[in-house]
Amino acid sequence: MFKIFIVEDDKGLVGLLKEHLHKFGYDTKCAADFGAVIAEFERFQPHLVLLDVNLPMFDGFYWCRQIRNGSTCPIIFISARDSKMDQVMALENGADDYLTKPFDFEIALAKINSQLRRAYGSYAASQQRRTVGVSGLTLDMERLALSFNGDKTDLSPTEAKILDELIARSGQVVSRDRLLDKIWDDQWFVDDNTLNVYVTRVRKKLAAVGIHDALQTIRGQGYRLLPNWGDET
Predict the structure, then answer these.
(1) Which residues are CB-neighbours of 53 under 8 A, at least 6 positions away?
(2) C-beta separation of 5 from 44 below 8 A
(3) pLDDT winner (highest mean) among 5-9, 72-76, 150-154
(4) Which residues of 66-95 are buried (b: 16+ CB within 10 A; e: fewer)?
(5) pLDDT for the residue 122
(6) pLDDT band at 75, cuts 50/70/90?
(7) Which residue stretches of the chain are H helix?
């Protein structure tokens, strides 16, 4: 049974979410102490987090960063703040998706199911227990880790899927549509900025292992990973 951690201070919404999620077989826990979200997260060990932006004491962006320090589990923001900047900030702080209140529960459930499939289910299964690489850069799809020359960094499931596609076609242009098709089965819900944000995050993860300026944006076409770092080592 998948476990979902709900970090939301609107008790009415929490009750509705619990009712619907239990109906579909999910186990849930709601944050009780908004100053100890990480402690509760670690005790519950959820498969997915639903996280509000406006919370007592610290906002959701803060807690998202704290969760990302030790976990790659999917995080979906649920918030009444509907500006593009808020959505971009959520993604840049480590979230995987964003729901704007009020939302249709069918859409919320579709997003939850989609994230769980990518992280643990049928979409993840085909990519587990394997590594891919180019010119010394290694992507471990099972452990969601990227390594190069002894440096290593953790990835979110979506970052790993983007890198998997780029590494498999290194030196070639990979279209935006192909990346969206490979990564998001429910892409009609995805904001146009979402892929841009994830590519920025992938560039940061490459930089974290010492690879800079290798992921190119090809205007009007897509992205290309050039393994030119191999010429420098």
Answers:
(1) 59, 60, 61, 77, 79, 81, 86, 90
(2) yes
(3) 5-9
(4) bbbeebbbbbbbbbebeeeebbbbbbbbbb
(5) 53
(6) very high
(7) 11-23, 37-44, 60-68, 84-92, 105-120, 122-125, 157-168, 176-183, 193-208
